[in-house]
Amino acid sequence: MRAKIVVFEPDGIYRTIIENILLKNDYRPYFVDNSAECKVIVDEVRPEIIIIDIRAAKPHDFRILADLKVLSKAPVLLTTEENVDDYLAALASKNVTIVLPKPIKSAELSKVLANLLTVDPRVWFGIHNYIPDLRKLRKIKLKRSTQVRTCIKTILNEMHAWGFNFNRETEMDLVWQEILINAMYHAHGYTNEKKERIPIELPHPYEVEVNYGASESAFGVAVRDSMGTLTPEAIIAALRQTIEQQKMIEKAAQTGEDISHLVLDRGRGLDLIRQLSGEYYFIIDPGVSTEVIIIYDRYYEKDDAVGSLKIFDLSYYRRDTPVISESG
After folding, report:
1. Backbone φ/ψ region at 46: left (φ over 0), alpha (ψ -120 to 50), beta
2. Boundary (domain end) residue, out of 89, 117, 145
3. Residue 313 forms part of a structural domain
4. CA 54/CA 82 separation, integer angstroms
5. Residue 326, domain member (yes or no)
6. pTM score, two decimals?
7. pLDDT digits over 68-122, tens only?
8. 140 to 117, 214, 311: CA distances (angstroms)
9. Are 69 and 24 in contact (CB under 8 A)?
10. Contact 250/258 with Cβ under 8 angstroms?
11. Residue 181 in domain
């Protein structure tokens, strides 16, 4: 049967855009005009997914999200034109981990919906699932932390050889380095060694797998560990810490206060992913694997500071979401 999706989107233009995307994917949309109607329709039709504009959800401290959680186990996907950073604490308390920026991109929304409607890890993991018409694919396996810099240089060189050149490659380098270091150290319990900058070698059979590839228009990097220790809470906490630090830095720039002892180096790479990447995903199968996938579009470089939020915890959807075909 067709998957049912309830949509609470006040803007007529975005309603039409979302409707076209849903119908293209053979979903059955139900549009609502206010919070009361949204709750009634959700209770009646029992949707597989609920899409809500963040402005519509915001009144009364996002009360509608709490109400919907009582009525339905369907995952909630938020959309926004605002800076999601202002609402991270509230969204975390409501277990919302997916926020897509407007204007809505058809490919991105389609992929997110497809993930939410299946619990098959083969659909969630793997960069080949996120770049259509993948033409090139390479794999690097890391056992030692000293291999990280060489890995990044290899990826950058091949990216250039494939004809991709981006304006903010310094920031991309920083992002990849933090993700790789985190996958090597934090995921495998070497946090203290990371703090002390001690090189490590992962014991057999553990390793960090890096896949990178390209289509005609997109270049992507995926970093995967075989531990699955990262959590949505840890990601959001790191992002919130980075946001607060940025506020302190901006304030200190005005007052001249020395805050160097308060500034930590964690979370900056995670935040840069959201700010610079056209598309990215955190995918977590707890106790099994974590993968971070970042995709850069040849024809689109993100130039605003408004980040999205895309964290998929497979255990949550395996527990709460039925497997439903997208058509039929």
Report:
1. left
2. 117
3. no
4. 8
5. no
6. 0.83
7. 999 999 999 999 888 777 777 777 778 788 999 888 889 889 989 998 998 788 8
8. 31, 15, 24
9. no
10. no
11. yes
